[in-house]
Amino acid sequence: MPMKKKLNLAPAFFVGPHVILFVVFILLPTFYGIYASFTKWNLMNEPVWVGLDNYRTILFDSKSTFHTQFNNGLKNTFIFVLLSVPLLIIIPLLVAVALEHKKVKGKSLIQSIIYVPGLISISAGALIWLLLFNKQLGMAGNVFGSNVSWPAHQPYAWILVIIITIWGGVGGNMIIYRASISGVSQDLYESAEMDGAGTIRRFTSITLPSIRFPLIYTFVMTTAGAFNVFGQPLMMTDGGPRQSTHVLMMYIRQLAFGNGESIAGMASAMAVLLGLVILAISALQYYVMNRNAA
Amino acid sequence: MKKKWGLSVLTLVLMLSTVLAGCGKDNSKTITFWTPLTGDDGAYMDQLVKDYNATNPEIKVKHVITSDMYTKLSTVLNSGKGVPDLTIIHADRVPGYVKQGVLEPMTAVTAAQPEIKQENYLPQAWSTGTINGTQYTVPLDIHSNVMYYNKDLLKKYGAESFLDDNVVTIDEMLSLKGKLAEGDYVVNDALLGWVILAQIQNLGGDIQENGKPAVNTPVMKQAFEDVKKINDAGLMTPFGEDGYLMFQSGNVLFSTDGTWSSTAHAKVEGLNFGVTNVYSPTPDKFTNRSSSHLFTMMKNKDRSEEKVAGIGKFLEFIRENSIEWAKAGQIVASKQVNESPEFKNYMQSFFTSSEKEIKSLYIYTYEYYPYIAEAVDTYCGDIVRGNVDIDETLQTMQKFVEDKITEGTSGAAK
Amino acid sequence: MSNQMTQQYDKRPRVKEQAVKGKASGISISKYVSYLFLIVLCIIWIIPVIFGITTSFRSQSEVVSSGFRLFPKKWILENYTAILDNTSTAPILRWLMNSLFIATMHTLFVVVVISITGYGYSRMKFKGRDTLFFTLLGISFFPGVVNLIPSYKIIDALGWVNTSWAMIIPGLAGMGNIFLVRQFMNGIPKDLDESAHVDGAGHFRIYFSIIMPLVKPVLIVCALFSFTGSWNDFLWPVIVFTDVDKMPVTAGLLLLQDIYGNYRMIGQLMGSAVLAIIPTLLLFMFAQKYFVQSINLNSGIKG
């Protein structure tokens, strides 16, 4: 490697401080969480080592409540991810592209309007949407004449959960795309225009390739975030009807911080399994997108 | 421009850090008192603490409201540092905490304060903290599932007679079938799980058999089926609609929510309401499933004897002066307060108006009650609305509770 | 997967500056399409916000009265006075100051940490660099459930319980912002700093004179995310603060909500939500003109 000797310490200086922070505040707690997944633990006593028992129960004991909860929770989480992630990528991307149009006025205002919901706390946001979809008090019944009780019937329950997620979630990705696209040289667009490339051509052949690195980031992080969902279904549907919107993180949190004695070992095992799923999927996403981008 | 911005941030930061410093306090001369009482409840408790501190006790009380108290308790108990001197916990936490050995008995407090004794409190509020003859808690209140009624609607539908014997039966409710205007309902589904647990008592059943959880039982099935009749007759507010708000909008005759809601209902102009017992399948018995806020001391070896003495004085003060707490809508546990004429001004005094009423306030003390309540809460909506097969779901619920018990550490590590 | 990020930035043809005069008709269509899309979206997005704000000026009686009204029949201030009057249990101004201090400090530290770390993972060459990065990233994907307990113990061991450090420092360990910065930096042609290297410039020079100006928009985005994230965190502060005077505002406002789930004063909840977002909203409005401002790789600054 064509490096001078004095540079050898430099990486430690640049990367090192964060590695220390990471070890103290993420690695140690995470290891403890993984350790807890091999124990029976109520958060207060000393954890009791049980080996792979928790995993065996969750994965293979088909009669166990934890097995059914895990399967149902994971299934619902996947549904949530598949429904929400594409929208959380495409809508902000379209917004960013539309905002990039030179002739569009009031960009700051539009941007602010789309970003604001992300600042509102989930409990307030959920209450707003529940009131809007309330048959008697809201818009859905009084303005649009909907006669359904949304949180209690499918597919409306999912639609409700997805709506509040999209509403609150597009702002972040939008500003990432805005920041990325504004870095794309205007010259590229102009010459493409001279060559007679249409809007869609310019989008696919200039915009997308130029922002592919941030795009990979948003895809991976949005997906990982979606797997961790629990606030939206908890507040909007409380997992119903018939636990069809009961996502895995809700089960995990109930086990660890529910009303009775905590079942934190089992909860940790479920969390580790969820972590492995997230890991596998984000690695796949990264690999595929990075290769296609090359 | 950039420099200036950086400079002003720096100044701000320095200014604030000086503001933030110098907040350290000596903890040996204060009783740290944690409560989960957020919202207005916290303000009422704050007032009580202020009143007590105004009596110039040797050790003052510092009230800390915590929005996620049980999680926070787990963290401090686990690390053994920062454990509060005094805490308010809910009744259903007591058996678990005692079993895990994290509660200090109240023996020293009751020994020093002769008036802090069973006879001076509502009996079930006191006894919920008695485990194997040891007293672990002193009660503040009973808060209960109750049934509010809309006076105007009762009149409109000629249903005032339902209230005559203080028991609204399911049959009485069913008699309104077909008589209601569109958009009106007889009862909502607020705290439905608690309502079901009350019916089990009304039907003479229980949630345990010789210490084993009993969920999949004929009584439980009966309880669900009785309540389901109301739904099947179209008299219950629709699934997924906010029945609590519908009661406040004046579209529902009865609302099965909590004692604490009376203050919120009172803020709705034009809502003319009263309170009675939760409905029952039989005129012979009625039950209001209740819980209690209990003072307790979490194990903490740093808690000095002086502090324990101070805690005793504070609890005695509460026993004598907690009329303030009635403002929160709760049934104050101290007899000196709940038998006073002033307490009669509060709507919830209905539940201390007779021996029978006091008895109707039922607190479950079974150690695995929290798991059973969780199972009932998770599945009751779908059962009552007929979304699921009742027998199959009861089996699932039984298994749900049993699995949680076996996985709990107290079930395994002895 | 260690080498896949070191591949060459594809060298797309540099285009000469050319004045574009005639506008193709396709542009005007896309302008209207853009407008239509943005306006429809904004309407859908703003209605709940307006409804939430106006609800904070409604009495409970009006909230529960049938029929939908975007604006209240009668505007009342009681929800706000109820929040602001409660100065004993809820010192809101104090909370706002605390939050401002915590979020500002956190954000300043974040910008420093992600700058140097992102640069390290993107621009420096050392053995196992990508392996290290992806390992840390992968670990950070594990959902933290019981992590609360060890995290509290660590904070306790550091003596940070009940201090602002407990809020300012742990968040710096996160991987999200570093990942984002690294991705941005990877999009910058390597030949830019390689030629500077040849000219004898050190890493700091290269970072400050070449890389940082180019990634400034993303640093601002990260700063915005960090500030907002720190401001809105309400789980962790509840665990590490006991002193109500030291609470940040988002956690503090939770103390004003009733404990009984839905059974609360709706207008008051909306009021506290409105109060809590004003500072972050102002920050966004201030910051937004900066994160779209970028420096052209070829020429000077453009707006």
From TrEMBL, chain C:
SUPFAM superfamilies: MetI-like (SSF161098). It is found in: Cell membrane. Residues 96-287 form the ABC transmembrane type-1 domain. Keywords: Cell membrane, Membrane, Transmembrane, Transmembrane helix, Transport. Gene3D superfamilies: MetI-like. CDD domains: TM_PBP2. Its main location: membrane. The chain crosses the membrane at residues 32-53, 95-119, 131-152, 164-185, 206-228, 268-287. It holds the Pfam family BPD_transp_1. It is a multi-pass membrane protein. PANTHER family: ABC TRANSPORTER PERMEASE PROTEIN MG189-RELATED, ABC TRANSPORTER PERMEASE PROTEIN MG189-RELATED-RELATED. Belongs to the binding-protein-dependent transport system permease family. This is ABC transporter permease. It comes from Paenibacillus helianthi.
